[in-house]
Design brief:
CATH topology: Rossmann fold
Number of domains: 1
Distance between the termini: 39 Å
Structural class: alpha/beta
Strand content: 25-35%
Largest sheet: 7 strands, mixed
Shape: globular
CATH architecture: 3-Layer(aba) Sandwich
Number of helices: 7
Number of strands: 11
Length: 218
């Protein structure tokens, strides 16, 4: 039920420098810079997504007269998967600073060698019935985490439009979304990479975004 797909790096822009620093090993050693780059990419993606929302005109008084300007009719509800999605969400909050936010904990079950399984944990779901719902996550690999998360949150409400935003996606993940999601949605992607390796990680990708942001897990 996919309606459209936007790919940021399909056209050259200053965002390419952000992708360079997110991917390149030497830049990745600086956790603070990695986080700031993901925040900046979130801001750029939020700006692009904002063009497709509904607007309404309002009248304003300036010191020299009266003018009219179109503003967003209603701020979308934002949602992310913790922990890797937090800085990406922060970038969206810079522009959508009055939006309600939801969170869910989802992670791969370690030690699974054949079929990748996902476990869901903590969740806090903001009401979004009849509103634009924007779900942000840095990486779309197999798509299993986002699909499992959406199955949970879409039980609660029905959005006006579902917007799925990823910094980097694989073709396999995009196809899995297309086959699994049953509500109208738009896909917003920073870059579409070559594919997945045998462990289900994006190639060339950038590595484990959560570890790069916050440190390795034990």
């Amino acid at each position: 039920m996919q309606q459209s797909i936007f790919v940021l790096n399909a056209v050259n822009s200053i965002a390419n420098q952000i992708f360079l620093e997110l991917r390149e090993r030497e830049f990745q050693l600086n956790k603070g810079q990695f986080r700031r780059n993901l925040v900046k990419l979130g801001q750029i993606m939020a700006y692009e997504l904002s063009k497709g929302l509904e607007y309404k005109p309002i009248k304003i008084d300036t010191v020299l007269g009266r003018s009219s300007i179109n503003v967003i009719q209603e701020q979308p509800v934002l949602f992310t998967i913790i922990r890797a999605g937090l800085p990406f969400l922060e970038g969206f909050q810079v522009f959508f600073d009055q939006s309600d936010c939801g969170f869910i904990g989802a992670h791969r079950i370690e030690g699974k060698k054949e079929d990748i399984e996902v476990a869901l944990g903590y969740h806090s779901i903001a009401p979004f019935d009849g509103k634009d719902l924007v779900v942000v996550d840095p990486m779309l690999a197999t798509g299993k985490s986002i699909i499992a998360s959406l199955e949970l949150i879409l039980e609660k409400c029905t959005p006006k439009m579902l917007h799925l935003v990823f910094a980097i996606a694989s073709p396999e993940g995009i196809e899995n979304l297309k086959q699994s999601i049953k509500v109208p949605y738009k896909l917003w992607v920073g870059a579409v990479d070559e594919g997945l390796n045998q462990k289900g990680y994006i190639i060339p990708g950038l590595g484990d975004a959560g570890d790069l942001l916050f440190g390795n897990k034990i």
